[in-house]
Amino acid sequence: MSKFWLWDFYWNNRETRRSPENYAAFVRKCAADSEMPRLRENAQQAGPYPEGPDNGWRYKFGRLPVHDRLLKACKLDEIAGQGDTFTRALRLMGWLCAHTWYSGASFWSARFSNSYFQGKRIDSMRILRFAFDKPFSHSINCGHVGYLLADCLLAAGFSAIPVTMKNYIYHAGGEKTKGVPNHTVVHLWLPEERRWVMLDPSLDSYISGSDGRALNLAEIYERRGGDDLRVARYSLNGTQECREEYLGYFILGSLLEIMVEDGACRDGSLRNRLLPGGVPLKGEKVRAITIAELLAEPILKE
User: 169 Cβ partners below 8 Å, 6+ apart?
Assistant: First the structure.
């Protein structure tokens, strides 16, 4: 691959950063790409996620300095209001989506503003300053808004994990040849029900079953080949644009490998990976986890 591939990406997609309408057109074009059916089929034909053994890995989080800054600056308790965990978390997600622009093509603003709002650690307060109530040129991608919502939820006293998913096309024998779609969302712990559910702050959405019950990524993966999936809530930058493409492109098109960090780690290293049976684990510093570990109750570090 040419060393100038990043510049090619920037040049070919520069129009997507000019307006939210251009970005919506870009999403429709990507969703119609000839590779997308192969990627969705790839995920549908993959095996189930391993359920065990439970090797004892747990998502452990502690309070970071940025959480106190977010809580004070944004009055998150007031925004969350009263109600159960899910209702309050939805208010926080809706508030965040109402005050930021989302664009999956905002990679360049993130990369070349590195010294300003990312650096060696993902700093949610700087991301918020960069994006909050700014023009579309300050749109943020799914990774940044995912970490931002997770930190806002943690600051307000909830348990939340940024979760990244990625899909691949494999040759026979397990050789990875192409990894196109990826998307970052948030898993929220519901103590009332003792389970995780997925929130997608990029599009102010979540996925439910036909009974209206919000699902986590593992449950969505289990139901990926059927019709028992519903898009609940939805907003692409304040519009219903690309709603029909959302489930197939952003979620089912990306959902194969699930990756999470260790606890309150914010250095962008996705160390823990949940892979379907038969899909090889690549990388020296990553460890395979199971559904039991991913969906276990989180632990609050002292």
Answer: 35, 38, 39, 42, 176, 177, 178, 179, 180
Domain region containing 268: 18-300
Q: Are 106 and 139 in contact (CB under 8 A)?
A: yes
pLDDT digits (tens, 9 = 90+) for 24-67: 998 998 888 877 777 777 777 788 998 888 888 888 877 888 99
Residue 155 counted as domain residue? yes
The neighbouring-strand residues paired with 206 are 232
Would 152 be classed as within a structural domain? yes
Share of the chain above pLDDT 70, in %: 84
The Cα 126–Cα 185 span in angstroms is 19
Which among 102, 83, 55 is positioned nearest to 288, based on CA atoms?
A: 55
Number of folded domains that form the chain: 1
pLDDT for res 289: 92
Residue that is written with structure tokens 């959405």 in the block? 205
